[in-house]
Amino acid sequence: MIAIVGGGPAGCLMALMLARRGHQVEVFERSPDPREVPPESGRSINLALAARGLRALREAGMEQRLADLLVKMPGRMIHEPGASDRFVPYGQREHEVIYSISRAALTARLIEAARELPNVRLHFNQRCTGYSGHGRIHLVDAADGREYEVQAPRVIGADGGGSVLRQALASRLGFTVREDRLEHDYKELVIPTLHGRPQLAMHALHIWPRGGFMLIALPNSDGSFTATLFLAREGSPGFGQLTSATQVREFFASEFPQALELIPDLTAQFAAHRQGFLGTVHCPVWHEGEQLLLIGDAAHAIVPFHGQGMNCAFEDCGVLDTLLLADPHTAFSRFQIERHADCEAIAAMALENYEEMRDTVLDPRFQRQKALSLELERRHPARFIPRYSMVMFHDEIPYAVAQERGRLQQQILDALTATPDDVDWALADRLVGELPPLPQP
Ligand SMILES: Cc1cc2nc3c(=O)[nH]c(=O)nc-3n(C[C@H](O)[C@H](O)[C@H](O)COP(=O)(O)OP(=O)(O)OC[C@H]3O[C@@H](n4cnc5c(N)ncnc54)[C@H](O)[C@@H]3O)c2cc1C
Known about the structure:
Blueprint: E1 2-5, H1 9-20, E2 25-28, E3 46-49, H2 51-59, H3 63-66, E4 71-73, E5 75-78, E6 86-89, E7 98-102, H4 103-115, E8 120-123, E9 126-131, E10 136-141, E11 147-151, E12 154-157, H5 164-173, E13 178-191, E14 205-209, E15 214-219, E16 225-232, H6 245-255, H7 257-262, H8 266-272, E17 275-282, E18 287-288, E19 292-294, H9 297-300, H10 309-326, H11 331-358, H12 364-379, H13 387-393, H14 399-416, H15 425-433
Parallel strand pairs: 1-2, 1-12, 2-8, 5-14, 12-19
Antiparallel strand pairs: 3-7, 4-7, 5-6, 9-10, 10-11, 13-16, 13-17, 14-15, 15-16, 18-19
Helix pairs in contact: 1-4, 1-10, 2-10, 6-8, 10-11, 11-14
The structure holds flavin-adenine dinucleotide.
Residues 5-11, 28-31, 44, 47-48, 127-128, 158-161, 164, 186, 228, 276, 296-298, 304, 307-311, 313 line the site of flavin-adenine dinucleotide (FAD).
């Protein structure tokens, strides 16, 4: 029997994968069944799904079952003050798109699929309070407050960024977890449909970059959008200054006037929705022998600016599934060896992407380098792939390789755009030709 703590995206997908291999799986989730209780408003309503997540879902037989929930986003729509809206494709091949998907619907479908298998049992309203070694987890039943213990030969901790199992592991093994909280928080707002129609172009991730802060919006399958404001907690502008309806209205009128038109009850939503915090978890140890292992955000929560947290968590599930199949006696320790550098790499790239989204997309040199990257990819598809594309569309390229390769490629882009002159293509071809070939699918 394998016990999984946490029935979020990673816990549910892992349960499904393990059950398909014939394991008996018990999932303990502190919240009620999401199919019966609507999610808390203002809590990350939709997510960007890309190649890594899709691959894991395909491996679990879920791709077709989710097809109707996916909203294609082939690029970014950039809304700059005083300029016309600009659509920038994410990639240059037809399949190089990302998808918006409802978190609640995705989790519900994973739960339904798991429920169809006789060897998975999902226990909702069961909160894990600790771990005391040898596969023993401590739980509390929300219905009656009963405390009990479950012992399983293997425990997988998929209990998210605030993981209780991570804390238990750290205190048992005596290591320190670094949790770097970002100085920026977020708040989600819903852009409703107007007369049943979407108010923005559906097939794009919308960004209103303002240098230092930004608003983004992802489409939902019903034509509404979920917008997210990312803004400093303190300072000016900052959430700390937005405590009254007047302050909120004035801030949006000056920075995002379009949002006031799109969201009639903006100030009410602003007051009602929770202000969420963001951060990166650097946990040096993810397992205790072959009995306890952390996956997903429990092991490596990251900031959301590359849209990769869930994708990375799903990739974890695929890797662990393969390792368990190959050799169950070493799977947990091998998982840490195989994944640690990759997860640190995506954590760093996600932080860098915040600057790109809120700031550098406005920089003409950045725009020139983006166009040049795509041209270099056309000329040298086996040697030059823009870093964003490596992360989002190339699941055969590990995150750590994408990060290092991205660094080398950036040096080439900097050299080729050092002056405003036309690109020296002979130099470009030589520099790219000197790079080693990339992993192939
Ligand atoms: C604003 C925002 C936007 C994001 N956008 C994207 C995106 O576009 N694309 C992307 O890939 N990722 C995105 N992410 C990241 C993504 O949400 C996470 O990486 C993903 O949810 C991780 O899945 P998980 O299952 O590991 O953890 P979680 O989703 O946190 O799930 C953990 C589960 O464990 C349960 N749990 C917690 N504690 C206990 C306990 N003690 N006992 C029992 N159960 C417990 C929780 O109730 C929950 O169901 C975003 C995150 C945020 C905050």
